Amino acid sequence: MRHVIxxxxxxxxxxxxxxxxxxxRTAGSAPxxxxxxxxxxxxxxxxxxxxxxCVEATVCAVAEDVLAGAGPARETYGVSxxxxxxxxxxxxxxxxxxxREVTADSPLGRVAADVAARVPVxxxxxxxxxxxxxxxxxxxxxxxxxxxxxDRAARDAAxxxxxxGESGIVTVGEAAPGPGCAAERALFVRSFGVPPRLLVxxxxxxxxxxxxIGALLGYRATVCDARPAFATPARFPEAAEVVTxxxxxxxxxxxxxxxxxxxxxxxxxxxxxxxxxxxxxxxGPAGYVGAMGSRRTHEDRLARLREAGLDAGALDxxxxxxxxxxxxxxxxxxxxxxVAEIVAARRGGSGRPLGELAGPVHAPHPLLNSRSKGxxxxxF
Length: 380
What we know:
Layout: H1 2-14, E1 18-27, E2 37-41, E3 46-48, H2 56-70, E4 73-77, E5 94-101, H3 108-116, E6 121-126, E7 133-137, E8 140-144, H4 148-164, E9 166-172, E10 185-192, E11 197-201, H5 207-216, E12 220-225, E13 241-244, H6 247-253, E14 263-266, H7 271-283, E15 288-291, H8 295-307, H9 312-315, E16 318-319, H10 330-347, E17 377-378
Parallel strand pairs: 11-12, 11-14, 12-13, 14-15, 15-16
Antiparallel strand pairs: 1-2, 1-5, 2-3, 4-5, 6-7, 6-10, 7-8, 9-10, 9-17
Helix pairs in contact: 1-3, 5-10, 6-7
């Protein structure tokens, strides 16, 4: 979604006419979460996707009608048992998509700027298509829904969702408004939170593809190694920062950066470096802590960490030897196995082949606990 927002802001600045199609609700085995978007320009250019290919052609046709003056649209796509030739999702799920033209007063430029600056921001869009929408974040509120009372209510709702890193449909206003009250409006809030961190300790060959793949998945990667000859930006161009320092010194000084979305990978292969940094990491809130090495190295590490005072609960959090068993060889395939384990840990996946499992391929997203019963998708 980030590249879609960047392109939308660029087109808006260049005066390109285009429509924005956004998934606002999902049910069952939907291919993409709520908030996934696609752009359709009046000249035929398309950026992004709402279903991975199932309904894109139909959504493009709807967008062309919107740009031709038909007004905002809201469509639902699923599986039709009555009409086998109907446009729908082959995965068995259902998605609801809104399509609206983006006007010059839309706050997309502000959203793109905040996203680029890694500042949390939410884009609020009215489902009825009326109003430019709002950008809500640390820099305040930009745009308007056409009513200052609704703007305040939308700001409060968006702030709550943004704090939790969630997107979804909310309802503001009153169904039967009295004097001084605003009429009810359904809004879609798309949150852009701070990217999760990938902390890689050990600037070894395995770290290079790991950082590359992590950046592709939206992680902000930091590489730290005590050896200045290895810890260089030239070796890790996709990293947000490359640091020359002892791993445990750097982590101790930056513990405030670590939260439940953080993945820590220790690739140092040296107990002088990996045991001290693992001791800190396992005492902290990181959602994933993994260490590279053989099974013998792992057992030696566990003994040293016990001596350092870590209990069984902390040691159980250590994923070592790091990665899933993919049978891979070499730095690139090893990096794939590590990232696969990080994704499984973050999303609650089993790591087993999908063919061995029952149920939907795409896990359903939890429902937003609000009056509108909208769908929530975790951003990070």
